[in-house]
Amino acid sequence: MNENILLVEDEEALRMTLTDRLRSEGYVVDFAGDGEQGFDKATRLPFDLIILDVMLPLRNGFDLCRDIRQAGLATPILLLTARGQTVDKVVGLKLGADDYVTKPFDTLELMARIEALLRRLPARAGQGLFQFGPVRIDVRGTKVTREGKPVYLSAREFQLLRYFAEHAGATLSRDDILREVWGYDAGTYTRTVDVHVAGLRQKLEKDPKNPELILTVPGLGYRFEG
Ligand code: CA
Fold first, then answer.
1. Which of 21, 45, 114, 151 is the most buried (most CB within 10 A)?
2. Percentage, residues of the chain above pLDDT 90
3. Lowest mean pLDDT among 160-169, 188-197, 198-207
4. Distance, CA 56 to ligand 1 centroid (Å)?
5. Which domains are present in the chain?
């Protein structure tokens, strides 16, 4: 499985150099030249990683990062910031970016950061077909449909849904979920789970505010109901 990367960068020369380099590493690359097109692609197409330049026409990288998160997408985001924008880096991470690299960057360094972010995705192979009400999950085909219509999930959302499906009916703590789906130590990024659950509810529940599939168990975590 090749990871799909969206590169949002308005400098054409850098965009082309980076695209070539990423493709030579085996990644599937799509790109956008401004913030609006970036938002459109980021929220419409499945990507495993998004690289965002901060200085962009129409919508800057910080706004874009926040908007992508607010749209319910959990795709890892790597920001390209300008030299000396220390405050900006902090702002970027607060807005939901996962990492940043300062321009001008060393390509090897960038590739290492990209690999590190993608490694967080569990690459478990497997099979199985689950049907929960209107939601159908095809693990081997990594496809999810709702009432027969395809649902777009990021790679992490898919792994989370799969974990839920494999443990349907059981109450799962945020710590369990973080450890099993993200490989993180317990207690550090528990909000990540909530954000991803919210994203899944948005995409899978008839009424995301009154979920019937992914239930909150107060004080404990979540339970996936078949
Ligand atoms: Ca730029």
1. 114
2. 45
3. 188-197
4. 5
5. 4-118 (3.40.50.2300), 129-224 (1.10.10.10)
